[in-house]
Design brief:
Blueprint (H helix, E strand, L loop, with lengths): L3 H13 L6 E2 H8 L5 H9 L12 E2 L16 H8 L4 E2 L2 E2 L1 H4 L7
Parallel strand pairs: 1-2
Antiparallel strand pairs: 3-4
C-alpha cells in the first residue's frame, strides 16, 4: 500500500477536481500514478489532515455511489456538499454521464 507520499499525490489530484464535478476512486488513483490505488484513495481521504483543504466529497464510486457515512442527524454530508455545487443524482447516485470530471493523463 502507498505511504504518505502517495497520499500527497492523491490529495493533489483531488484538489484539481473542479467544483460541480466528481471523480471515481480508480480515476483518482490512476491520475495519482497507480491505477491499483483505488482503495488507497479511500484510506487517504479518510486521513485528510484537518489543516489541509481536500474536497473529499468530489470522489465517488465508478457508479456514482457516495460515502455511506452520515452526520448526527442521519444526513449524508457528501450528498449535501455535492448538491450545493449543482451535482445531480439519479436513483441515489451521482449522474456520472453529466458530472464526471474528464481529466486525462496526457
Amino acid at each position: 500500500m502507498g505511504g504518505q507520499n502517495s497520499f500527497d499525490k492523491i490529495y493533489e489530484v483531488v484538489r484539481e477536481i473542479p467544483e460541480g464535478k466528481v471523480a471515481a476512486y480508480g480515476q483518482v488513483a490512476e491520475l495519482a500514478g497507480n491505477r491499483r490505488w483505488a482503495r488507497v484513495v479511500g484510506y487517504a481521504l479518510h486521513a485528510v489532515p484537518d489543516t489541509a483543504y481536500v474536497p473529499w466529497h468530489r470522489v465517488v464510486t465508478k457508479e456514482g455511489g457516495l460515502y455511506r457515512g452520515a452526520d448526527r442527524d442521519g444526513n449524508n454530508i457528501q450528498a449535501e456538499l455535492l448538491r450545493a455545487e449543482g451535482v445531480e443524482f439519479v436513483d441515489g447516485n451521482v449522474d456520472m454521464k453529466r458530472f464526471q470530471w474528464n481529466k486525462r493523463l496526457f
